[in-house]
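Data availability (excerpt). The following record was deposited with the supplementary files.
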Amino acid sequence: MAYPVSITELTLETSPAMAEAYAALTYDYNPLHLDHEFSATTPFGSPIAHGTMALNLLIEAIDQSMADSEMTPYLDIRFSAPVKVGETIQTGGNRLSPTGNEYEIWVATLSGTRVLSGRLVMMGGEGQLA
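Predicted structure:
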């Protein structure tokens, strides 16, 4: 398979209603994500989106990018900044070499702050590099 040059760009606008729905879906009712009064007392100052919301958006972007691949994605990521509820995030990624199977990947706010970054390697069967 010829791998794409870049990862599909997907965008997600977070909102209080989305944070509530995501909390119900994941059973993560941490007040940091849902309670304005509580989160105002934290260093974040307001509710922040669940970190896995950004990760799931990235996984969907990878899935769409590699739809024809039978390889397994290996992710090495780091959450680097919070997403305030109400911010919009976008996925991105670029192949590191012209014919390779390794990518620099990220999720960032529209202002450019990377909230998640790392590396994607497409692996062959049984965990072998493609």
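Summary of structural features: The domain at 48-127 is CATH 3.10.129.10 (Thiol Ester Dehydrase; Chain A).
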